[in-house]
Amino acid sequence: MSFLWHWLWDCKNNILKNERKYLMELFRNILYTPNELAGTEEYFTLLHDPCASKYENYISHVEMLWERRIKWAICYRAGTSFKGHNTNNMVESSIRIFKDIV
């Protein structure tokens, strides 16, 4: 999810500071849906949201991310067992340990 957070805070995207958190929450609603149908509904809710619709670049970015939803949306990864952790947390933890050793 940090990928979208960094995108929202990048000045070149011209997202108003007071709207970044809300736009992030819209995306988070997709990320944490319990099933694919709910994820699709949240996606269309985001696309038609008045605040999100003000930013064509945000909508385009989310559409691009949606095409790869199998890689990041929790509902598509439900059959994968990571003991309550997503792979990014596991990778980041491993890298941190490796850096401490080296």
Structure description:
Helix content is 69%, strand content 0%. α1 runs antiparallel to α2 (17-31) and α2 (17-31) runs antiparallel to α3. The protein has one domain (1-99). The longest helix has 15 residues, at 17-31. The protein contains seven helices and no strands. It has helices spanning 2-9, 17-31, 36-47, 50-53, 56-67, 69-72, 87-101. It has 102 residues and is mainly alpha-helical. The mean pLDDT is 84.
Give a quick precis of the structure.
The chain is mainly α. The protein is 69% helix and 0% strand. It has one domain.
Describe the global form.
globular
Unreliable runs: none
Mean pLDDT equals 84
Range of helix content: 55-70%
Tally the helices: 7
Structural class: mainly alpha
SSE pattern, N- to C-terminal: HHHHHHH
Give the strand tally: 0
Q: How many structural domains in the coordinates?
A: 1
Percentage of β-strand residues? under 5%
Main sheet: strands, sense, barrel: none
Distance between the termini: 28 Å
Rg computed from alpha carbons, rounded to a whole number of angstroms: 15 Å
Present the secondary structure layout.
Layout (H helix, E strand, L loop, with lengths): L1 H8 L7 H15 L4 H12 L2 H4 L2 H12 L1 H4 L14 H15 L1
